[in-house]
Design goal:
single chain, 251 residues, alpha+beta, Jelly Rolls, 7-stranded antiparallel β-sheet, two-stranded antiparallel sheet, 13 strands, 33% helix
Length: 251
């Protein structure tokens, strides 16, 4: 909620998290998939980079990019991050827990991610939506649906890896084009979200630097502290594990 400035009474908008990012606490799934590895659903983000700060346990993040396939070990204290378009899959080797830092706060929750479902699902927007969605309200049903979603994504992930081995980088670029087509209907909404959050923060920093260059305090006159409230209830089922998220002040 916006509040008035204590001295001037002017309307002040609460700041978003520094850098316009979002954070969540992730306990990576420990149920085995069809290939015998425990972990989450392989997917990419179409507009947002992502970072992991490992806080407990051990595991790996498996990635696919134009540089090929790679496995990055994860242990407490490790920090790994990657740019949009990188397919990533978390593998839990024992109680893996992360703080996840997402670029463009809000976009990942608005459908920025695309799972590596088989081609026939990726080519059908309705089929993709049905396969990607999880039921609400019943934790057991949601857990079962999350496993089915993970297993279907692993099926497509295997197909994608095979296609890359057979046809090289073009197979990866083809998958990215399918992902772009899937999210295209949402982009106008994302642009609005980005303009009023990340872009607005960038503009405020530009103006602040201009104020400081003239010797004025600028935004420092609006100094404030914001505490985010945890989303109530049990951790939600994410693509990679059970998530604790927070409610951020609206802008």
């Amino acid at each position: 909620m916006s509040t008035g400035h204590p001295l001037t009474g002017a309307i002040r908008i609460p700041p978003i998290f520094p850098g316009g990012v979002a954070v969540s606490d992730l306990c990576v799934y420990d149920a085995e998939g069809p290939d015998g590895l425990a972990g989450g659903s392989p997917h990419l983000h179409t507009a947002s980079g992502e970072g992991f700060v490992v806080t407990g346990g051990i595991g790996e993040v498996h990635t696919l990019s134009h540089e090929g396939a790679a496995i990055h070990p994860l242990a407490p204290g490790e920090v790994v991050y990657f740019s949009p378009g990188t397919v990533h899959r978390l593998v839990n080797r024992g109680d893996l827990r992360l703080v996840v830092v997402m670029q463009n706060a809000g976009l990942p929750e608005a459908g920025d991610a695309v799972l590596t479902f088989p081609t026939e699902v990726l080519e059908d927007a309705d089929a993709y939506a049905a396969a990607a969605s999880l039921p609400e309200g019943d934790a057991d049903l949601a857990a079962s649906a999350a496993r089915r979603r993970r297993d279907l994504a692993l099926e497509g992930y295997g197909q994608l890896r095979a296609a890359i081995r057979d046809r090289g980088p073009e197979a990866y670029a083809e998958f990215q084009r399918r992902a772009a087509r899937l999210v295209r209907p949402r982009v106008a909404h994302w642009q609005q979200m980005w303009e009023r959050t990340v872009a607005a923060e960038t503009n405020r920093t530009r103006d602040q630097l201009a104020s400081l260059a003239e010797g004025h305090p600028g935004l420092m006159g609006d100094a404030t502290v914001v505490r985010a409230d945890p989303v109530p209830g049990p951790r939600r089922f994410g693509m990679c594990g059970r998530l604790q998220t927070w409610r951020w002040p609206s802008t």
